[in-house]
Structure formats: structure tokens, C-alpha cells
Amino acid sequence: MCIFLPDAHDGLPNLAGMISSRPGFLHEHMPKTMIRVNKFRVPKFKLSFESIIVTILKKLGLELSFGDQADFSHM
């Protein structure tokens, strides 16, 4: 898991803007090697995300899973 934190105390909106507007931002800033952290605590939080995933998956070519011929009986 990677956690990205802003440099400034009030920099979260700016960081979120850079992540959403620059497609390669996360890849460019991903550490090349593992970074050890002695003690690191993350407060409990909830994350939610909504998307029309079926439409996205069909656009990516995964159409059989959502058609009449879909067979998940061996799962």
C-alpha cells in the first residue's frame, strides 16, 4: 500500500488536483524501492467510490461476462 501525503499542512486539495489532472502523477511519484517506516498510524476511515463498472468493463472487452451466455457455475 502506498499513501501519498501533501508537503504542506493544508495541501490536500492541491495534491488531489495534481493526482486527478496528471495521468502519470502516481506512477512518477511511486518509490522505486521499499521505504521502511518505523511507526506509522493511519486513523480509521471509510472510502467509497461509485462507478458504472459494467460499462467500463465492456469497453475494455469483457463482454461475455455480462451477456446471456455468461456461465459462472464453476466458480
Oligomer: single chain
Domains (count): 1
Query: What is the helix/strand order?
Result: HHH
The share of residues in helices is 25-40%
Shape: elongated
**End-to-end C-alpha gap:** 28 Å
The gyration radius over C-alpha positions equals 19 Å
Beta-strand fraction estimate: under 5%
**Low-pLDDT segments:** none
Which secondary-structure class do the elements indicate?
A: mainly alpha
Mean pLDDT: 87
- Strand tally is 0
Largest sheet: none
Number of helices, counting only DSSP H or I runs of 4 residues or more: 3
Describe this entry's structure for a reader.
29% of the residues lie in helices and 0% in strands. The protein has 75 residues and is mainly alpha-helical. The chain has one domain (12-66). The longest helix is centred in the N-terminal third of the chain and has 10 residues, at 12-21. InterPro entries: Serpin_dom, Serpin_fam, Serpin_sf, Serpin_sf_1, Serpin_sf_2. This is Serpin domain-containing protein. One of its GO terms (molecular function) is serine-type endopeptidase inhibitor activity. One of its GO terms (cellular component) is extracellular space.
